[in-house]
Every structure is written in C-alpha cells, then in structure tokens.
Amino acid sequence: MMELRDVWAGYKVHGREHMVLRGVNATFWRGDAVGILGRNGAGKSTLIKVLGGRLQPKSGSFRHDPDFRISWPLGFTGAIHGSITGADNARFVARIYGRDPYEMEQEVEAFAELGSHMYKPVNTYSSGMRGRLAFAMSMAIDFDCYLVDEAIAAGDARFQSRFRNAMEERRDRSTMILVTHSAGILRDLCTSAAILQQGKLAFYEDLDEAISIYERL
Amino acid sequence: MQAGERPIAAPSGLRRFHAALQLQLRVIGALLLRELHTRFGRHHGGYVWMFFEPMLLAACIAGLHTVLGHHLPGDMDIPSFYLTGYVPYYLFRGIINRSGSALLGNAPLFFHKQVTYLDVIIARNALEILSVLFVQNFLLYLVGVFTGTFPDNPAQVSLGVLLIGLFCHGVSMAITAATVIGTEEVDRVTHPMTYLMIPLVGAFSMIWWFPSDMQAIMMLNPTMNMFEYIREGHFGPMVPYHYDMTFMVSSVIAANFFGLFCLRAAGNKYPYLADV
C-alpha cells in the first residue's frame, strides 16, 4: 500500500518555486491498475517522480509499506545509461538491487529479445528497443509497484502483446500506475483511472466516465 | 534487499545502519564498474587509458625537464621530482575539474532511488585515486630502473597521494553541490582555477627554497604539506621537508565535513534533474 497525503511538489526554476502538484491525495493498493490521465504539463511525470522516490514533496507526506518495492519510472529516457551496452545496464541494475548480475543479464536478454544489440551501446538503440530493455529490466527485479509511461508499451506488435501478458500476469500481486493519453491502452490494462488537473488528482472507478471527462479537458 | 526478504517490523538502529551500509557499498561497487565502462569502455584500448592517460602527460613533463636540464636545488633527481609533482597534481586536477559534471553526467542513474549523489561522487573519485596511486608507484619504480634510486618509503608516497585524493574529494563535494546554480557556470570558474593553482598547490616547488617568513604562510596550505610528505617518501632525508601530519589529517576531515554539509544543503534542489 502506498499513500499520498496533501502532497505539494514541483521545481525551482531561476530561483522561483513552481508547484506542479498542489495537494494530491491518493491511496494505491496491491492489485490496483490505475491509469493517470492529464494534459501535457499537468504534472504526470512529477507525480511519477514523487512515487518513484526521486523527488521529495515540498509538503505533505508520501508513505508506503516498508516491504513494498516501487520500480523506477519506466520510460524511454532515464534509468538507462546510453554510452554502455544493454547488458552492462542490466548488470548494473542487478547489482544495485542485489541480484546476481549474470543471471539477470540472461533473463533480460530472453525477455527483451534484443539479440546482438544487447552487447551494443544503448545510444545505438531505436526508441522501441530502449523501451524493451527498460521493461525487461524492471520485470527481472519483480517489483510490487510498477510506474509505467505508456510510451514504453508502444513497441512493435509482438512486444506489445508481451507487455500486456506480463502486466496481466502480475496484476494480482502488483500495483501498476500507468501514465497514458490513449483510451485504448487505458481500457486494456487499467481497472480505474485518475485525472490530474490543476495540480490535483481526481479518481474515477468508471473508465468511460474518466475518458469522456478527459476528452473534454 | 531481495524481493522475498521481509524487513523485521522494528529493526534496531544498528541493524538498520548495517543494512544501509551494505546497500551503499553495493551501490558504490556497481557505480565503480559502470564508471569504468563509461569512461574507458571496451574499444580503442579501453582500460589501458585509465593508466596511460596520466602516465603520458607526467612522463612527457618529466622528460622535458630532464632534457632541458634545469638544475634543482639540493641535487634532486629531475624526473622523480616532476613525477612526484605532476602525478598528484593530475589527481587534484582530475577530481576538481570533473566534479562539476558529476551529477549531470549521471542523471539517468538517479531514477534508481538507492543511488545517491554521494555514491556517484565517491565512486568517481575512488576510481581516480586508485588509478593515480598505481601510476605514481609504477612511474617512480620505472625511473628507478634507469637511475638506480627507488622510492625510499613507497607507503609514505602512497599515503601522501591518498591524502591529496581525500582532500580533493571533500572539495569536489562542495563544487558538485555548487552546481545547483548551474553546471556550466561552475565549470567556467573551476577550470581556470585549477590552472591558476599549478604554482600554488606545491606540485613544482618546495618550501625550503623560500625565505622563512614565506615558509610559515606556505605551511598553511594543506596540499603544499602533502606534496612535501610525498617527496620525503620518495627522496628520503636528503633535503629539509616541511609538513605537519596533524594539520594534513585535520584539513582532510574538515574538507570532507564541509563537502558533505554543502551536498546536504543542496539536497534535492538540482534543477536539471527535472528535465531528465
């Protein structure tokens, strides 16, 4: 379980504070699959960063159970180092999360299906390949909560179905928080939705209701 | 922590500290290996550069002075004098100049919440210190093969290099913390400063060359003390050396506390982490 209580967070740009989240309240339980909707700049990434533990809220509290392991934000950018190979990245992540590096490298290779690209620098990857690598690494760690950017699911058809299967399989034991713009992906993968607007988060049990509100924003 | 491993409900302070320490060591170890890959890679010679880069410059400078035949006071061996000056200076410059870009260059890593700014800085500087320690000893022994005089006390030489490394580590944390203002702004100041520091750090001069009222002032510079200490380790008792061990150790500790304090004060205020 993880919980946000009246969370305010944002950045300081040129000495001026810029609060993107202005009083977010939310509780996420094991098994939840929540789609976060919001216009560009609404603060979706900021919210994900707070949940990922990378950004400290300015005020309010973010708490989670001590054994509740939250992933890093899964997307194309971030968490992957470009100048080293995919295999190097996998081993690095294995080391910092306390897994056997070579075992993890093999698992990632099997899931991401990158073939010989696994041993080339990540800078040479297409964005789809980067997404596959990032997702495969997070699957190998087995988190309790996945923070996912929808862009990562936009690989080729084969990877998309693998992504869905993997998420489907983890649904009972994991929480998934998916940032998305697409009604299709939302209906496919999420059980509830939340709209981020003017720094606040509103939850909707009914996906159709959420989508229709979002489309009118 | 493994996925299946559950932390005890209320772990004692010591156990928590132990777990945190283990995690930090694991992360620093992983960062060290990664730093090796990103800095030197596997192609075009790869890791050889880790040692060859400092060696190339140090050997050229020492060689140049040997050929020019500048006579040194006290008849000190010319190549050894410049090696005990240039190699530790290379460490000083390497750590200080690279500290501005420490966080920006590693921005993707901070998505993993167990990776802290401090871990990244420690890993980078540890790699720098280790490679320079090796190069310093290797080159001094190599010169010894030709001149017949080997380091008088290699442990003292290494300890001196280590002291310079740890002192610079403290300073580098403060510089990295200052990049809150902006990486470029900080780099624009630190790079010329490291050049201006060449005559001031003590790499190419010795305290006993100067009049005694000047010596008292020079003794206030921690790196000046450390260079004297390294030279005593190499040359042994052939010229007078001026250093104060208590002062050196306390300035290393002070620099590190100051650096940690700055890093803590800068905290989560890094603007560029918002863009990655």
From TrEMBL, chain A:
GO terms for cellular component: membrane. Gene3D superfamilies: P-loop containing nucleotide triphosphate hydrolases. InterPro entries: AAA+_ATPase (IPR003593), ABC_transporter-like_ATP-bd (IPR003439), ABC_transpr_TagH-like (IPR015860), Bact_Polysacc_Export_ATP-bd (IPR050683), P-loop_NTPase (IPR027417). GO terms for molecular function: ABC-type transporter activity; ATP binding; ATP hydrolysis activity. This is ABC transporter ATP-binding protein. Belongs to the ABC transporter superfamily. The keyword Disulfide bond does not apply.
From TrEMBL, chain B:
The keyword Kinase does not apply. GO terms for molecular function: ABC-type transporter activity. One of its GO terms (cellular component) is ATP-binding cassette (ABC) transporter complex. One of its GO terms (biological process) is lipopolysaccharide transport. The keyword Transport applies. The chain crosses the membrane at residues 47-67, 87-105, 126-147, 159-181, 193-210, 245-263. InterPro entries: ABC_2_transport (IPR000412). Keywords: Membrane, Transmembrane, Transmembrane helix, Transport. Belongs to the ABC-2 integral membrane protein family. This is Sugar ABC transporter permease. It comes from Rhodovarius crocodyli.
